[in-house]
UniProtKB/TrEMBL annotation:
Monomer. Binds directly to the core enzyme of the DNA-dependent RNA polymerase and to nascent RNA. Participates in both transcription termination and antitermination. The gene is nusA. It comes from Aequorivita lipolytica. The lineage of its organism: Bacteria, Pseudomonadati, Bacteroidota, Flavobacteriia, Flavobacteriales. Its main location: cytoplasm. NCBIfam families: NusA. This is Transcription termination/antitermination protein NusA. Residues 285-345 form the NusA-like second KH domain.
Length: 410
């Protein structure tokens, strides 16, 4: 094999979309220099001439002519008689340039060179892919389901790049089939052993934020700002929005007429319940809005401890807490305050947690899930109603009620 047209010799490893001819020639030179170092000990006295336009490459070895029998370093010196076989006019002390053919490197070196070239090209491709997706971190991306595993879905984009959507970064209701198009955000990109690992997420709050940018023109144009997003993926989300233009109703613009604008986002997120609220720097008002749809009577704030004590009418408490405690948890995350809910007129009431010596914690938690976290709030309900609304047995509920009644009979 000659050195000419080496690009064509290795064309099966060249991806036109990932590597250009000039870069391939540079990689080729690097690989050849490594091969020369291995065979001759040094590549300092070699000239490698590449021509990316023609796709050829030449290697020239430069040595100094010395008298016969005085060659100490055969890589840098050549005897007079050997030099005169190349050109009869050579004399001692002159420089000799001799072309090295690919076959001179030996069969094993050629095989190693070929393997190194493949490795370098793949490494280059992976670096390009890494940089490309690193720039896309936090952005929405679409790819097709290629393979479904137990702990992750493997996606491929139009360029054949592999993207991983782990189980924990999916929405619980997500169900995929091979060939489905999937949208998510590129959450992280890492190089592991020179191979880029691209992770997609559909559960991250930023995915919902980017969906607002895509689906709501005023957000895309910057007329409306998404201040903060908190989510329990597939269950509930709260989005605080604001606008510098007083003529714009941020919430109305995001929700749309009869929910027309937000409907597509809700559907994309597996019918996740999305509360959109107006952001305000007035902390009391912000906490009140964050607890929507509950109507708050009053708010007492402790800015040092980052706690807020919220008083509501008894019928509003369950709304404030929400199913599974989702509403109050998200309100706390949105505002940055731990929120304690109290009922109006409950000054003489007792928190259920005060009975932890007599009532097991998981039972107290069951009552809390339906918004009942004080003794009187439990006693106000009928036993049959409590059986229907909780996962507790009737006997367990009766025992709890008896314990609570004793507190107020003393």
């Amino acid at each position: 094999m000659e050195n000419l047209a080496l690009i064509d010799s290795f064309s099966e490893f060249k991806d036109d979309k990932q590597i250009d001819r000039v870069t391939l020639m540079a990689i080729l030179e690097e690989v050849f220099r490594n091969a020369l170092k291995k065979k001759y000990g040094s590549d300092d006295n070699f000239d490698i001439i590449v021509n990316p336009d023609k796709g050829d490459l030449e290697i020239w070895r430069n040595r100094i002519v010395v008298a016969d029998g005085e060659v100490e370093d055969p890589n840098e010196e050549i005897s007079l008689s050997a030099a005169q076989k190349i050109e009869p006019d050579f004399e001692i002390g002159e420089d000799v340039s001799e072309e090295v053919k690919l076959i001179d490197l030996g069969r094993r070196s050629i095989l190693a060179l070929r393997q190194n070239l493949i490795s370098k090209i793949h490494e280059h491709d992976n670096t390009i892919i890494y940089k490309q997706f690193k720039d896309l971190e936090g952005e929405i991306y679409t790819a097709e389901v290629h393979h479904i595993r137990h702990r992750a879905v493997i996606l491929l984009d139009d360029e054949g790049n592999e993207i991983i959507l782990p189980k924990e970064k999916q929405i619980p209701s997500d169900f995929f089939r091979k060939g489905d198009n999937v949208r998510g955000i590129i959450e992280s990109v890492d190089l592991k052993g020179n191979k880029p690992t691209i992770i997609m997420s559909r559960a991250a709050p930023v995915f919902l934020e980017k969906l607002f940018e895509q689906e709501i023109p005023e957000v895309f144009d910057g007329l409306i700002t998404v201040k903060k997003v908190v989510r329990i993926p597939g269950e509930k989300a709260k989005v605080a929005v604001d606008s510098y233009d007083d003529r714009i109703d941020p919430v109305g613009a995001c929700v749309g007429m009869k929910g027309s604008r937000i409907h597509g986002i809700v559907r994309e997120l597996g019918n996740e319940n999305i509360d959109v609220i107006n952001y305000t720097s007035n902390l009391t008002l912000y906490i009140t809005r964050a607890l929507s749809p509950a109507k708050v009577t009053s708010v007492k704030i402790d800015e040092v401890k980052k706690r807020a004590e919220v008083i509501l009418r008894p019928e509003e408490v369950s709304k404030a807490i929400g199913r599974g405690g989702h509403n109050i948890r998200l309100a706390g995350q949105l505002t940055g305050y731990e929120i304690d809910v109290l009922r109006e007129g409950a000054e003489e009431d007792v928190e259920l947690t005060e009975f932890s010596d007599e009532i097991e914690g998981w039972i107290i938690q069951e009552f809390s899930k339906i918004g009942l976290d004080t003794a009187k709030s439990v006693l106000e309900h009928d036993i049959n109603d409590l059986v229907k609304r909780t996962d507790l047995e009737e006997e367990t509920i009766r025992d709890v009620i008896n314990i609570l009644k004793e507190e107020f009979e003393e």
